[in-house]
């Protein structure tokens, strides 16, 4: 690794911003949102004199990596005509409404929803002619796209760049609230903003992967290491497309056959004149538990003291009364983010700062547990999200159902989450003399359930586990070549070629996501998964809601990052 130990000395930062800034909802995944959002909370004046340098030594600080291939770098970053061209390419992709719904049927050429994907494919082929001439392009998982840019040395593991083509639907009731129509891709030059569904989640990354590659091909770049671009088609629904793409890649190259994966998730935020890069190195786990209480029906003129609805309500109340334990584990990437952001002023919270300086984890846990923006980075969440039961005023409800959505903490597991639910289910079942059954999988029937307590005349509680997912393995950071190239490329781009021409401080820190990406299907392929675009993230991009937008500068910074990253990996990496 060249120039990796080239740490830049940094001034210790002691002063605090003393103005109140507006709280803004930041871009991308909720978790990153949480962390970054805090950066703009009310700032306190206080006289605590601890030294922030004691929070962590050298955290976040990396030296720049000299770009290996610079032919078009200045054009990409500073040529306004070029920028306008890339914005137009994104706008065209936004105009094709590749909306995906929870009940969208399986891919089929005859269905209107999937026609949009066919049109998008035609559009991409038109926009990136060199790429389509040079790379192999295949379909997998229906309308998933897999591009193969063959390297000259087949003993090097391929690099995988991911994103997804689908977008969440626009609610027809809110179309009128958009500043510019949601599928216009309208660009306001004065604001440097592109409006439309998918501008921030995540057609910007689809375009930046393809544009960076197109530009590299045009500039005569020929990779030694194979590069795969893998674009899912239903990330916002089941993610089945990504599963097929991953299986396809595993079949072709084998298990643990991939050098590294980059996907959506993190980027670079600007705070107080410095840049903070947050590649996401882990994701929380997931469990939807559908709990149904079956009880005898009958005429409601002679009801029992508690109907199925009443009993289920007690169960729900007792679940909500027992939240999960917070745990700050130093292996949790969110802890790295907290330290780096606090040390360098992107988070300004006097209590968090004090506990970090003193290294008092218990006090830190107690403080974080009161902060909704932070606590779920360190504990499992539970939310009662869907409920149903009963059909008629004069009939006792024969069943009542609640869906509990859990995002599982890194230190926990699906098993531990289920045990927590079962604690309360057992208690309820004992109190009201009911049976208990557990079913695994969306399509499971009671014939293949596990019975934990036999049914009684009063009925039974059935827990159906939907979409269980363990927390993601934590990707390597310090000491890993893959991480160092990501960090060095970022520092070089934002420091030496900082937008606006001024030299800026650049910090790089691992981060955690509370949501999941298509990478959840790619664990067999590599341990090195980074949810990171390298692009600048702006506040208020409004993913999944009205007025989703992104800046031209953000789009261009992603293209510039990918242009450098692809060529840096090829030049600097020594890992086969
Ligand atoms: C572009 O943005 C500016 C500044 O917000 C605004 O004044 C102008 O009306 C916008 N233009 C259009 C066409 O929406
Ligand atoms: C809530 O939990 C506390 C202790 O964790 C317990 O004392 C209390 O009885 C519980 N309340 C309900 C309504 O379950
Ligand atoms: C912290 O995480 C590591 C690695 O996952 C684990 O071995 C350790 O037990 C955890 N510590 C606590 C206190 O949970
Ligand atoms: C904000 O940036 C200025 C200039 O780089 C620096 O002196 C100051 O310490 C920073 N503020 C915080 C809270 O880190
Ligand atoms: C959780 O794991 C423990 C230990 O392996 C096991 O005994 C228990 O049955 C598991 N619980 C569930 C609900 O699967
Ligand atoms: C990963 O490998 C395991 C074991 O071979 C297999 O059961 C699983 O389906 C694979 N996962 C994916 C997403 O392909
Ligand atoms: C291909 O890569 C392998 C692994 O790094 C290396 O040993 C080999 O020399 C390379 N072959 C060529 C022709 O460069
Ligand atoms: Zn997305």
TrEMBL record:
<keyword id="KW-0472">Membrane</keyword>
<dbReference type="GO" id="GO:0000328">
    <property type="term" value="C:fungal-type vacuole lumen"/>
</dbReference>
<keyword id="KW-0378">Hydrolase</keyword>
<feature type="transmembrane region" description="Helical">
    <location>
        <begin position="24"/>
        <end position="44"/>
    </location>
</feature>
<feature type="binding site">
    <location>
        <position position="201"/>
    </location>
    <ligand>
        <name>Zn(2+) 2</name>
    </ligand>
</feature>
<dbReference type="GO" id="GO:0004181">
    <property type="term" value="F:metallocarboxypeptidase activity"/>
</dbReference>
<dbReference type="InterPro" id="IPR011650">
    <property type="entry name" value="Peptidase_M20_dimer"/>
</dbReference>
<dbReference type="InterPro" id="IPR017141">
    <property type="entry name" value="Pept_M20_carboxypep"/>
</dbReference>
<dbReference type="Pfam" id="PF01546">
    <property type="entry name" value="Peptidase_M20"/>
</dbReference>
<dbReference type="GO" id="GO:0051603">
    <property type="term" value="P:proteolysis involved in protein catabolic process"/>
</dbReference>
<comment type="similarity">
    <text>Belongs to the peptidase M20A family.</text>
</comment>
<keyword id="KW-1133">Transmembrane helix</keyword>
<feature type="binding site">
    <location>
        <position position="164"/>
    </location>
    <ligand>
        <name>Zn(2+) 2</name>
    </ligand>
</feature>
<feature type="binding site">
    <location>
        <position position="201"/>
    </location>
    <ligand>
        <name>Zn(2+) 1</name>
    </ligand>
</feature>
<feature type="active site" description="Proton acceptor">
    <location>
        <position position="235"/>
    </location>
</feature>
<feature type="binding site">
    <location>
        <position position="544"/>
    </location>
    <ligand>
        <name>Zn(2+) 1</name>
    </ligand>
</feature>
<keyword id="KW-0645">Protease</keyword>
<dbReference type="Pfam" id="PF07687">
    <property type="entry name" value="M20_dimer"/>
</dbReference>
<dbReference type="GO" id="GO:0046872">
    <property type="term" value="F:metal ion binding"/>
</dbReference>
<keyword id="KW-0812">Transmembrane</keyword>
<feature type="binding site">
    <location>
        <position position="236"/>
    </location>
    <ligand>
        <name>Zn(2+) 1</name>
    </ligand>
</feature>
<keyword id="KW-0479">Metal-binding</keyword>
<dbReference type="InterPro" id="IPR002933">
    <property type="entry name" value="Peptidase_M20"/>
</dbReference>
<keyword id="KW-0862">Zinc</keyword>
<feature type="active site">
    <location>
        <position position="166"/>
    </location>
</feature>
<feature type="binding site">
    <location>
        <position position="263"/>
    </location>
    <ligand>
        <name>Zn(2+) 2</name>
    </ligand>
</feature>
<dbReference type="InterPro" id="IPR047177">
    <property type="entry name" value="Pept_M20A"/>
</dbReference>
<protein>
    <submittedName>
        <fullName>LANO_0F01530g1_1</fullName>
    </submittedName>
</protein>
<dbReference type="InterPro" id="IPR036264">
    <property type="entry name" value="Bact_exopeptidase_dim_dom"/>
</dbReference>
<feature type="domain" description="Peptidase M20 dimerisation">
    <location>
        <begin position="281"/>
        <end position="428"/>
    </location>
</feature>
